[in-house]
Amino acid sequence: VNELKRALAVSNEARSLFKRADIKSGEGSALLTAAFANYSQGNTEEALSLVEEAQELFQDEGFHKGEDEALRAISELNDGEERFSKAMKAAEERRALWEDLDNCGKEASALRMMAQIHLHSGEMAEAERIALESRTLSQKAGDKAGEVVSLLILTQVHLDALQKAEPGEDFERPSPAFVKARDKANRAAGEACTLAGKSHDRNLRASAVLWRGQVLSYSRRHQDALRVAQEAEKLFKLTKDLVGQAHANIMVAYLHRAFSERDKAVEAASKALDLAREGKDVNVEAQALECLKKVEDKPEFVPQIQYVQPEGGETQAAPGAAPQPAVPTVVAPK
């Protein structure tokens, strides 16, 4: 808290200096820093007001990079059903900015944000259409990391369809809807893993691998899913990503429970809880606590998906935060 207060004081002082010097881009950057400090203290409305002011300053000066960052933050801060229109408006403005400047890589990034907003609003058809468009632009720009994130969004879309599809009474011959969704999810996750494996970004690779594990779990390939989830945990460990490790251990816990390996399930869930607390992520801590309770109390279940943003994707947790792909976790059914 003290560090955030100091950051807020420094950003306010910097803003005053830039304002006196009439350097709008500097003033806007200081406002973004202040917005991040306010957001971290739970002052979302104040953070949003500061980001909107920063966006106007960047726009006045023609500082496109700053305007992009501000629009991205506006979309993030407005994410959620009740603010869908504001979030989408900012994302669309961001897309228009880079489309006008003929920067297909940045335009693809804006499209991914639009796809994620549709995803979290339950508009899967639009999410799929825009994610495919973002993938095409990422390929054109030679942005393999961006293409991976687009594929992870598509994976989430197909997993949603897979979750809703009934496999049928005979799992050896599942329903056509289940097979179609399963094959699409497997293809998207597999391509994401292949591409991510060629990059030097271990965190990106770990996220792709964990989504692959989720697809395998939903395809009832639980043994393969467990192996892949454990691989993801090792990758997150290499990057010292405590929250990523927690997500992986939650999945491992549920999968052990599916094999009636209660002690191993409890061990993994407890580890996830410790990692979430060490990583100071209260949302993942709550998921780990729920997981621990369910693997201790419930008999058998099939793991189910829950979307976690990260970003899913490429979204930010707060203004100025580094973009990360979405990371999945699993929850037991009610």
From TrEMBL:
<dbReference type="GO" id="GO:0005929">
    <property type="term" value="C:cilium"/>
</dbReference>
<keyword id="KW-0963">Cytoplasm</keyword>
<dbReference type="InterPro" id="IPR011990">
    <property type="entry name" value="TPR-like_helical_dom_sf"/>
</dbReference>
<dbReference type="GO" id="GO:0003341">
    <property type="term" value="P:cilium movement"/>
</dbReference>
<keyword id="KW-0802">TPR repeat</keyword>
<dbReference type="GO" id="GO:0005737">
    <property type="term" value="C:cytoplasm"/>
</dbReference>
<feature type="region of interest" description="Disordered">
    <location>
        <begin position="310"/>
        <end position="334"/>
    </location>
</feature>
<protein>
    <recommendedName>
        <fullName>Tetratricopeptide repeat protein 29</fullName>
    </recommendedName>
</protein>
<dbReference type="InterPro" id="IPR051476">
    <property type="entry name" value="Bac_ResReg_Asp_Phosphatase"/>
</dbReference>
<keyword id="KW-0677">Repeat</keyword>
